[in-house]
Amino acid sequence: MTDMITRAQATLRANDRDGYAVPTARLYPFQWNWDSAFTAMGFSTFDETRAWREIERLLEGQWDDGMIPHIVFHAPSDDYFPGPEVWGTTHTPPTSGITQPPVLATAARCIFDTATNRGDAEARMAAIFPALLRNHRWWEAARDPQRTGLVALLHPWEAGMDNSPAWDRAMARVPTDTATVIRRRDNVHIDPAMRPRAEDYQRFIHLVDLFHDVGWDPARMYAVSPFRMADTGTVSMLLRAEQDLLVLSQRFGGAAEQQEIAERIARQRAGIATLWNDAAGIWMARDLIDGAPIEVGTSAGFLPLYAHAANPGQVRRAAATLARWAGCVRFLVPSTDPAAPAFEPLRYWRGPIWAVVNWMIADGLAWAGETALAARVRADTIAVIDNAGPREYFDPTNGNGAGGANFSWTAAIRLLLAA
Ligand code: DGY
């Protein structure tokens, strides 16, 4: 076992809080939705039981309508803003009122497929499957009421890629006044130059206040939100998760469920196809308020490969785009096109490398037959982690670590890349 594998396992153990892992101590002291999905897969490489617990504890936060919130506040902490008192939702345990990319069905399938304790895996998966199905139904009912195949995000935090330049245009229409007093804690833990700006937070919290005022009702949130975005990342993770759910439904569901999931897959496949930008050679987000395409390349723009939603021509063009990016930076994959004016190599989702996105892109490239590029992305991911440790993100120009240290999902990806 290499030193970094030992360290990655130790990171997950150290971040364990009674069956769920915090993304990292202090900066993120609760359970986060998509972090946990990756973390569970990481645990599955050395502790299957703990992997299942991660999913089960996340599902304690699931709402009656099927929504899985982006944060579950299992235990109090003063280290984070906005805490449960700002969200003001009514769930027990307390949760936020928005969601995050749906990676959970993919994680559950991964853990199920690799489990060695088959009896335990069968029992736990049978218990989890209905919750996953309810969650996928929620996505379509709450976020794609017209059944276009493109679900809408109502807050940049739902993308998990909070300050991506892909949201700049739409967020410009979100006012900066807030009823809630903003008391940021992230800037106390991390260099502010690596975090979203003050103005970003004003708009983030304006949206939280707005949704709070409509009682966290999904239809009213959808109606009042000035931010309604088809994100290439989320739609791809959802489509991939639907395909994993379909496989699980063959064992844990019935014919009706299989039919229902297959229909959503067909709709989502058609929806993603409309996000392809032929001139740029990458998929791009769409503003669902006015239908405008978002003309900025981000790493999320490669994720339709991970959703298996690309034709051979698109694969060739997307691979050429990624090769162009590789010519501008030392390590792949920067979160923003390094030739774009918005590129900032150290500011959170405006340039840094994120191991989880790399893992998905590499998976998609391998599926598409781009094996050399897939190997390059995997090797770069290992190189930056082994050089800097399991940091939150990495500077693509030199591989330096940035943001929080001892990050669960980065450790998890290192374990998955070794497995
Ligand atoms: C944060 O607080 O930075 C998170 O990304 C929002 O969930």
* Chemical compounds bound to the protein: (2R)-2,3-dihydroxypropanoic acid
Quickly give the structural class. mainly alpha
Q: Please give the alpha-carbon distance between the first and last residues.
A: 11 Å
Mean pLDDT: 98
State the major sheet.
2 strands, antiparallel
Broad shape: globular
Write the H/E string, N to C: HEEEHHEHHHHHHHHEHHEEEHHHEEH
Q: What oligomeric state do these chains adopt?
A: single chain
> What is the radius of gyration computed over CA atoms, rounded to a whole number of angstroms?
20 Å
Count of strand segments:
10
Low-confidence region ranges: none
**Helix content class:** 40-55%
Strand content: under 5%
What does this structure look like?
The structure is a single chain. The chain is mostly helical. Helices cover 50% and strands 5% of the residues. The chain has helices at 3-14, 33-44, 48-59, 84-87, 104-114, 118-143, 156-159, 168-171, 186-189, 198-213, 218-224, 232-252, 255-273, 312-326, 355-367, 371-388, 408-418; strands at residues 16-17, 20-21, 31-32, 71-72, 229-230, 276-277, 282-283, 286-287, 393-394, 401-402. It has a two-stranded antiparallel ribbon with strand order 1-2. It starts with a helix and ends with a helix. The mean pLDDT is 98. The site of (2R)-2,3-dihydroxypropanoic acid (DGY) has 4 residues, from loops.
